[in-house]
Amino acid sequence: MKNQEGTIVASKNVIRHKHLLIIDDILTTGATIETCYDALRLSNPHCLISILTLAVTDSW
After folding, report:
1. Please, are residues 54 and 26 in contact by the beta-carbon 8 Å criterion?
2. What are the two backbone dihedrals, phi and then psi, of residue 54, each rounded to the nearest 5 degrees?
């Protein structure tokens, strides 16, 4: 998680009142999804966020 902190920033103007879908090909630790989610939620707490993951590793 520490590696991902602060690496993704979302613009308030782009996502205002939208339904967003975060797509991740393979879920390993979940750090990338969590970082994306946090950035989107921070920039606009009123957007709806869904997550789609295509595969999961054994370590998860």
Report:
1. yes
2. -85, -30
